[in-house]
Write a structure and sequence with these properties.
14 helices; Rossmann fold; 2 domains; six-stranded parallel sheet; binds adenosine monophosphate
Length: about 400
């Protein structure tokens, strides 16, 4: 990695401001955390800093409070959870203090009084409109709290906000946290020096969301596998009519261009060759298998890939040495249409010779649902950020970190 990592720095007695992603789901009243995965994911970075006697200051956004304090979007409930999680790993009575505003006198005072090995969590950054506006004066105030800035919020790195980009102009050193470093290492290697064959599996609803990823990967990958709703725009581009399946008619040309590029570049471009058709978008729909290139019945829609497609995709995936997967193969939320996605999850996880990277909320959920997440090399935490990374874009929150 070309950027400074927290592991490159001497943290002892320094005030280290870590931008984390504590954008956790809360109960309606905003009092209870319903899923603490995001807190757990950044624990290694916090633990690392605390063990090296840093004075740790944590900042994050939560929800979309639109630039003003909203009681149900306070980060306060995170304090108890974090204290408990840190207690479990550090075996000391961990003290996590909470500053009711992320800037201002109280935050300044609390940051100044912090001792080595102590933690201070700041209130939701987005209670100030200046955060998303990347306001320099606000960024400077945040920077004044610390000696060193660390960004561990990969999921927010595609946005140039005050806490992800602006702040780096006012601190001497800006480094990647351990989670950020992991993301950049795995995703970066896949794009720049993948072990070959490199197979990308792209699924999900829409071509429009992922066409830039496909376009970028066509320059790098040996094979691209397309499943999910977006496959039907590609099949239409090849001249097949697909009944009521999801098709973006305004993207058929774009899909055709991608197919042409694949041919010109010699990239194997695999589309489903059979389909589970349903008479309605519902878990109790009547279903039938469709195979071949003749038109689908006009009233039916494809909601999953069929068994022959699974076999075709499996053979490509099993030979790969690098695999990136983003997006489900069908409407996997309904058990009747989850077979394709689950089969791909097992196959990706079962390839022990490959570096396997899964990104995007739905494919991550599918991997967890199939119980194979511990067999995946890297599960990316940032949905939008990992997509933009795979598009080949430079993320502002990454670009802003200090070069090694
Ligand atoms: P995305 O957010 O673009 O990754 O899309 C994920 C969504 O695509 C999931 O909610 C799936 O249910 C949906 N999806 C996958 N396959 C299909 C399909 N064949 N038809 C309609 N929706 C689909």
């Amino acid at each position: 990695m070309s950027k400074l990592s927290i592991r490159d720095l001497d943290l002892a007695n320094k005030r280290v401001l870590i931008r984390v992603d504590f954008n956790v789901p809360l109960s309606k009243d905003g009092l209870t955390i319903t899923d603490d995965t995001r807190i757990r994911e950044t624990l290694p970075t916090i633990e690392y800093a605390l063990r090296r006697k840093a004075k740790v200051i944590l900042c994050s956004h939560l929800g979309r409070p639109k630039g003003k304090p909203v009681a149900t979007m306070s980060l306060r409930p995170v304090v108890d959870r974090l204290r408990k999680l840190l207690d479990d790993i550090l075996d000391e009575g961990e003290n996590v203090a909470f500053a009711p505003d992320c800037i201002g006198e109280v935050a300044n005072e609390m940051a100044a009084q912090l001792e080595s090995g102590q933690t201070l969590l700041l209130e939701n950054l987005r209670f100030h409109p200046e955060e998303e506006a990347n306001d320099p004066a606000f960024a400077k105030k945040l920077a004044s709290l610390c000696d060193i800035y660390v960004n561990d919020a990969f999921g927010s790195a595609h946005r140039a906000h005050a806490s992800t980009e602006g702040i780096t102009h006012f601190v001497k050193q800006s480094a990647a946290g351990l989670l950020m470093e992991r993301e950049l290492t795995y995703l970066g290697k896949a794009l720049s020096q993948p072990d070959k064959p490199f197979v990308a599996i792209i699924g999900g609803a829409k071509v429009s969301d992922k066409i830039q990823v496909i376009d970028n990967l066509l320059d790098i990958a040996d094979a691209i596998i397309i499943g999910g709703g977006m496959a039907y725009t590609f099949l239409n581009a090849q001249g097949q009519t697909t009944g009521k399946s999801l098709v973006e008619t305004d993207k058929i040309e774009v899909a055709r261009a991608a197919l042409d590029k694949a041919k010109a570049k010699g990239v194997r471009f695999l589309l489903p060759i059979d389909h589970v058709l349903a008479d309605k978008f519902a878990h109790d729909a009547k279903t039938q298998l469709h195979e071949g290139t003749h038109p689908f019945h006009v009233d039916l829609m494809a909601l999953d890939i069929g068994p022959k497609s699974i076999e075709l995709f499996k053979s490509e995936i099993s030979d790969a040495r690098t695999i990136i997967w983003n997006g489900p193969m069908g409407v996997f939320e309904m058990p009747a249409f989850a077979k394709g996605t689950n089969a791909i999850a097992y196959t990706v996880a079962g390839n022990n010779d490959a570096t396997t990277i899964v990104g995007g909320g739905d494919s991550v959920a599918a991997v967890k649902q199939s119980g194979v997440s511990d067999k995946i090399t890297h599960i990316s935490t940032g949905g939008g950020a990992s997509l933009e990374f795979l598009e080949g874009k430079i993320l502002p929150g990454v670009a802003a970190l200090t070069d090694k």
